[in-house]
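not sure who needs this but someone in the group chat was asking about Golgi associated kinase 1A from Accipiter nisus so here u go. i didnt clean anything up, its just raw.
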Amino acid sequence: MRLLAGGQVVSKTRVPAHGQVLRVGLRALGDAKGDASPATLEGDCWDGHCGLIKRPGDLYEVLAFHLDRVLGLNRSLPAVARRFTSHLLPYSYTDGSLRPIIWWAPDLRHLEDANNDQNSCALGWLQYQEMLQPHRPTPAGWDGPCSSIARGEWSRLALFDFLLQVHDRLDRYCCGFQPDPSEPCMEEMLHEKCQNPAELVLVHILVRRSAPSRLVFIDNAGRPQHPEEKLNFRLLQGIDSFPAVAVATLQSGRLQSLLLESLRVDRELWESHGGAKGLRPLLWTIDRRARILLRYIQECNLTVFEDSPR
C-alpha cells in the first residue's frame, strides 16, 4: 500500500479492452534508476511493482478493499486513493482528480479465449448453482481451474458482493432486480437473456496461480447508491453458509467504527471526503445492508463455517 500511495511512476501501458485503465510501474521513492523501458515494466510487474490506475468513478474500490480486510475475507487486491503528477501520464490523469490505484497481481490466471479473458474458468449460472448443491459431485464435464476453488469461496464472494451490490460477477444480466433503462445490462440487451438461464455466465471469476483454491475479487466498485428496495438477493442464491468471522463482525454492531478506523490509513481518501463525517453515509448504507443480510441468514436458517469447506 505504501508503494501504491507514494511510489514514483516510471512506466505505463494501456490495458487492452479497458481504455480508461493504465498499468503503471512503480518505484519506491529514493530509488534513482529513472524511467523504465517497456521491457523493464514487464519485469517490474512480475516482481509485484505495478498498479492499475482506474477512473475517478471507481474510487469506491478503495472502500471495498477496506471492507474486505475488516471482514477478514482477504480476497481483494490492495487499493489506495491517489492524485498523480507524473509527466509520463496523460493530462487527464494529472489534473488533480483523485483516482484509485489497485495492486497488479502478476500471477492471475486468465483464459486464453480473447472474448473471455477476465475469467480463470468458464462457468455458467446453471453450472454454478449445481455446483453449490451440498454433497453433489463435480458436474460432468466441468474441468479446469474452477474445480480447485474451495466451496467456501463462493460464500465469501456472495457476502461481499451483496454488501457492495456488485452485480457484474454473479448477475451481470440484472436478473435479480428490475434495472433502470440506463443500466448497462439494459443498454447491451443482456437483461433479455434472463428468460433463458442456460445462456447466463459468470464473469471476473479469477484465481492466482500461486493460490488456485482462493478467489480473487477484482472490479469491486459496486453500487453505493443502489436503492434498498432493489437489493439483489440473487447474489445469495444457492449459498447455504457464510464465513463465521465475517458474520460475527456484522453482528458486532461495530462495522462502521471498524471501517472508519481502517479508512483513516488512506489519508487521500479520508481528507477528500471530509473525514468521518463525509464517509458515514457510505458506511451507513453498507451497515444497513449488513443488517438485512443478517436477517436473511436468520430467516433462511443458514449456517456459518470456520474454515473453507469444499
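also The beta strands are 8-15, 18-27, 50-53, 79-82, 99-103, 206-208, 211-216, 241-243, 303-305. if thats useful
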